[in-house]
Amino acid sequence: MADRKLILTDPETNKQLDLSVVAGSEGDPTLDIAGLYPKLGYFTFDPGYGSTASCKSDITFIDGGAGILRYRGYPIEQLAEQSSFLECAYLLLYGELPTQEEFTDFDHDITYHTMVHEKINSFMQGFHYDAHPMAILAGVVGSMAAFYHDKLDVNDPDQRDLAAKRLIAKMPTIAAAAYRHSQGWPSAYPKNSLGYSERFLNMMFSVPAEPYEINPVAAKALDLLFILHADHEQNASTSTVRLVGSTGANPYACVAAGISALWGPAHGGANEAVLKMLNEIGTVKRVPEFIQRAKDRDDPFRLMGFGHRVYKNHDPRATIIRKACHEVLEDLGQADELLDLAMELERIALEDEFFIERKLYPNVDFYSGIIYKALNIPTSMFTAMFAIGRTVGWVSQWLEQSATPTRIGRPRQIYTGATEREYVAIEQR
Ligand code: ACO
Question: What is the pTM of this model?
Answer without folding.
Answer: 0.95
